[in-house]
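Before the break, one more example. Copy the sequence into your notebook; we will annotate it together after we see the structure.
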Amino acid sequence: MRNWIAQADRDSGRRSDGLTSAERDELVRLRRELRVAKLEVEILKRAAAYFAQENVLPNDLHRPVHRRPCRRSAVRLVAG
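Here is what the structure looks like once it is written out:
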């Protein structure tokens, strides 16, 4: 009962030794938003790491592949 009276005094401005109900609600909301934002950042970091790892090629695949153009298919297309 004493806590309720003290909180009512804070809300009305008669006491200044703690947070008002509105300030406490805002603090709860902001902490929740921060927790969600941190979770989203962690998910994005993990996704970026996953996709970066997927795009890495083994060393033997980094060398360019030189192929001679197939002349027969070009001749067949023109002649055909």
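The mean pLDDT is 80. Residues 30 and 36 are 10 Å apart (CA to CA). Try to locate both features in your own notes.
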